[in-house]
């Protein structure tokens, strides 16, 4: 009874949550990397509705959402793991868990948050509720491309040692069963997990090609593919590493950004053989499918990071080249693909375009925006 | 914010406007790998403390031609030698933001 009275009192004196009863399905967060803040945006309003500050160094920051789409876990470059409440627009908890981190993932039950670290390397796993450390898994390497695998598992690749580690927290969260695959290839720079949680594709920087790991096999089976793409062409300098997350599986075909080539690689998902290439305006960074998978949108490393190219999946031709402005760092589609939001870092704005006509629908001021994350990510595997 | 120390005279024809662009490039584009605050990422930390004692000529060469066998690209297609030298001096002297 007393508790109930206190809870009621709390509701009365905590206006942010109580006054504004609303869902979160059309909300999102935009990283303002210079300022160390997050802009809370409303897709329906095409507007910013608040800002959460004090998140530290957000260069290369990414985030994941809790299953209820209310909380986000933000992975900062300074090793900070911050839990924010997008309804009250406040930091709920923050721990500095490492010297230098690169990304993270949330388990399929929403109970564990894993952080991939550059310094001291390895992965740390936290309780999603309290941010208390649950498991510390040193790997003797910087780690990249961490993703959630169905069944309370995480998968990650190691930059220095060329391995893939599968961590199974389902039986004992604090003491995961570890399956380690060696000889994945030199310097994995990023990886992606297909939406069904079956295939983990690792991009290699230290040598040509990629590796696909079939997680349905026991033990998981690794297959190298495109081992010599671009062998006959001189490598172009890579001024920003491509990202594989946001990748494409459209009509049984992967569209992957090449490394050191200004091309998009089309790969048959069943045979892992190359089907075609599309010449692009620069070194691709993200190659993101529109949710209906009909088009792939590509942004670029410097000096071509003012452009976005749209590639048709059926013809594999570039159908449009947009120039939103300097420093197009990220693209995020509305969950059902009606519109796309683009962060234009050097112009301090996010622009919203119709995903079919490409017409400009709106703009939101933001301080040096980078990653854009809509809450529907909460329900997608591998993000 | 960045607090830029007085730059050396020998930096060649880097105009104040261009210097502003180069500072932006260091922070944003070098920052892609080395971190916005240059404290490291996929690439090593390149704060003045981390680079202490390094020869500016050698750093200029690394900036222009990259480091083979690593992810450090050569920036010669985008930067003149004077500009690379300006960045080397800047990295050695600037205060950590």
Task: Describe the model.
The complex is a heterodimer of chains A (383) and B (97). Chain A is mainly beta. Helices cover 4% and strands 48% of the residues of chain A. Chain A contains two helices and 32 strands. In chain A, strand 18 (210-214) and strand 19 (221-225) form a beta hairpin. The mean pLDDT of chain A is 92. Chain B is an all-alpha fold. Chain B has a single domain (15-93), classed as Cytochrome Bc1 Complex, Chain D, domain 2 (Orthogonal Bundle). Chain B is 47% helix and 0% strand. Chain B contains four helices and no strands. Chain B has helices at residues 16-34, 48-51, 56-65, 81-93. Chain B is globular and about 30 Å long. Chain B starts with 15 loop residues before the first helix and ends with a helix. The chains are: A mainly beta (383), B mainly alpha (97). Chain A binds chain B through residues 33-34, 57-60, 77-78, 100, 102, 118-119, 142, 159, 187, 189, 205, 237-241, 301-303, 327, 345-346, and chain B through 24-25, 28-29, 31-33, 35-37, 39-42, 66, 71, 73-75, 77-78. Chain A: This is protein NirF. Chain A: InterPro entries: Cyt_cd1_C_sf, Haem_d1_sf, Host-pathogen_enzymatic-act.
């Amino acid at each position: 009874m007393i508790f109930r009275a206190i809870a009621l009192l709390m509701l009365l004196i905590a206006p942010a949550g109580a006054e504004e009863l609303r869902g979160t399905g059309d909300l999102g967060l935009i990283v303002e990397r210079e300022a160390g803040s997050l802009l809370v945006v409303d897709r329906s309003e095409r507007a910013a509705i608040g800002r959460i500050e004090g998140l530290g160094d957000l260069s290369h920051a990414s985030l994941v959402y809790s299953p209820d789409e209310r909380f986000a876990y933000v992975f900062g470059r300074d090793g900070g793991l911050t839990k924010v409440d997008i309804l009250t627009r406040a930091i709920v908890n923050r721990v500095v868990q490492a010297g230098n981190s690169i990304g993270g993932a949330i388990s399929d039950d929403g109970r564990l948050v894993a952080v991939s670290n550059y310094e001291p390397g390895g992965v740390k796993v936290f309780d999603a509720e309290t941010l208390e450390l649950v498991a510390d898994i040193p790997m003797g390497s910087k780690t990249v491309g961490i993703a959630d695998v169905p069944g309370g598992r995480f998968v990650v690749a190691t930059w220095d040692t060329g391995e893939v580690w599968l961590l199974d927290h389902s039986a004992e969260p604090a003491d995961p069963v570890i399956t380690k695959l060696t000889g994945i290839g030199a310097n994995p720079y990023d990886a992606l997990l297909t939406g069904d949680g079956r295939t983990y594709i690792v991009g290699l920087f230290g040598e040509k090609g990629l590796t696909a790991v079939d997680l349905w096999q026991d033990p998981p089976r690794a297959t190298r593919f495109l081992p010599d793409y671009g062998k006959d062409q001189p490598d172009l300098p890579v001024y920003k590493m491509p990202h594989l997350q946001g990748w494409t599986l459209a009509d049984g075909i992967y569209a992957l950004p090449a490394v050191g080539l200004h091309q998009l690689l089309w790969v048959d998902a069943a045979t892992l053989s190359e089907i075609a290439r599309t010449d692009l305006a620069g070194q691709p960074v993200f190659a993101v499918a529109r949710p209906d998978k009909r088009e792939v949108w590509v942004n670029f490393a410097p000096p071509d990071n003012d452009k976005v190219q749209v590639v048709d999946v059926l013809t594999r031709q570039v159908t449009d080249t947009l120039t939103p402005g300097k420093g197009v760092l990220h693209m995020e589609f509305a969950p059902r693909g009606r519109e796309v939001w683009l962060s234009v870092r050097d112009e301090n704005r996010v622009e919203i375009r119709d995903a079919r006509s490409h017409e400009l629908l709106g703009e939101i001021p933001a301080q040096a925006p980078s990653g854009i994350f809509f809450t529907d990510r909460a329900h997608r595997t591998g993000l | 914010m960045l607090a830029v120390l007085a730059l050396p005279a020998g930096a060649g024809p880097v105009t104040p406007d261009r210097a502003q662009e180069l500072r932006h490039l260091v922070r944003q584009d070098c920052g892609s790998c080395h971190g916005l605050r240059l404290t490291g990422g996929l690439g090593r930390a390149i704060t003045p403390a981390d680079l202490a004692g390094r020869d500016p000529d050698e750093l200029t060469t690394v900036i222009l031609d990259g480091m083979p066998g690593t992810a450090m690209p050569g920036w010669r297609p985008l930067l003149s030698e004077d500009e690379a030298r300006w960045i080397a001096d800047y990295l050695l002297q600037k205060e950590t933001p």
